[in-house]
Amino acid sequence: MPRITLPITNGFYVDDSLLVAKFECTNWHPEVVSTNGVISNEILNDTPGINQRTTTGAINQANRGYHEKDETPYFLNGETLVRVDRVFDIAGTASYVNVSLGNIEGTGKVSMSDNGKQLMILVPGGKGYIVDESALPVFQEITDVDFTANGAPQYVDFVDSFFIYSTANKHK
To answer: pLDDT digits over 49-84, tens only?
Structure first.
């Protein structure tokens, strides 16, 4: 079978408009090799400084969202919300422990934001959740009827001491 060269070093670009460009190379950087006699003159190198510490989901499980609060990462993999805690042994060696906080139904991406104490998670067009390690239960669904009074929540951000979220309600 003949060898085919793929032009990988000039095909990664991204723009805010998907109509212009939608190809983004994540955690890899393309490089042109200038040495003669190599199998391919173009390679993808991994990003220096990135080391895998733990695996928070199953193979081929979709990551639906990530947020870091107080240097602690939170992942929503599939329907499981996971907090990754860094712990140290007596010798000072760090290890990472996955803590399952609860389940969030769905398959689509979520929106996350925090106020330093609480993490709010929104499923666009669906439910909202709060993670608060100082409360029991730590993970709970937002059930206040006013939460969806203006339409289904879509995106959340924290601004000036308030969680602000957009809704899908369209005014005519």
So the answer is: 777 788 887 877 889 999 999 999 999 999 999 999
Task: Please give the residue that has the higher pLDDT: either 33 or 172.
Answer: 33
Q: Does the pLDDT at position 3 exceed 80?
A: no
pTM of the model: 0.69
- Cα–Cα–Cα angle for 7, 12, 14, nearest 5°? 155
- In this structure, are 32 and 83 located in the same domain? no
Domain-located, residue 161: yes
For residue 108, which phi and psi values (nearest 5 degrees)? -85, 170
Q: Is residue 112, in this structure, part of any structural domain at all?
A: yes
37 with 107, same domain: the answer is: no
